[in-house]
Amino acid sequence: MPVKVVLIKGRIYNIGPDDCIALRMIGKDDHFIEMSFPFHEDTQNFQLTIPEALALRNAIDQMIDIKLLEKPKER
After folding, report:
1. Is residue 22 part of a domain?
2. pLDDT category, 29, cuts 50, 70, 90?
3. How far is the CA of 20 from the CAs of 10, 15, 27, in angstroms?
4. Is residue 69 part of a domain?
5. Considering the entire predicted model, what is its pTM?
6. How distant, in Å, are the alpha carbons of 57, 67, 71 from that of 35?
7. How far is CA 46 from CA 25, 26, 52, 75, in A?
8. Has residue 71 been placed in a domain?
9. Residue 68: its pLDDT value, please?
């Protein structure tokens, strides 16, 4: 069961110097991704289906507007 951790620097809400979000595959055939906030005991874990996890990824990509190719330079 793979686990990934996304580190978050403490910038707002007085969450301390560092925080993180943990992601792991769960389920018999790994059909769900669990997203948890391990340093926040009062926050429930979220179980996302693969389409929900991909929708979250796409929403983040759209918000930061990642461009894979540089704009052509004018000559």
Report:
1. yes
2. confident
3. 10, 10, 22
4. no
5. 0.67
6. 13, 26, 35
7. 12, 11, 11, 50
8. no
9. 60
In whole angstroms, how far apart are CA 61 and each of 12, 47, 56?
A: 22, 21, 9
Share the mean pLDDT of the chain.
Answer: 80
- Sheet of 18-26: strand order equals 3-9, 18-26, 32-36, 46-49
Structural domain of residue 28, as residue ranges?
3-64
Helix and strand numbers (H, E) in the chain are 1, 4
Residue 32 is assigned to a structural domain of this protein: yes
The rounded distance, in Å, linking the Cα atoms of 12 and 3 is 26
Cα–Cα distance, 15 to 13 (Å, whole number): 5
Which two tokens mark 31? 């059909």
Number of domains in the chain: 1
Give residues with Cβ within 8 angstroms of 35, minimum separation 6.
Answer: 21, 22, 23, 45, 46, 47, 48
Rounded mean pLDDT, 8-30: 75
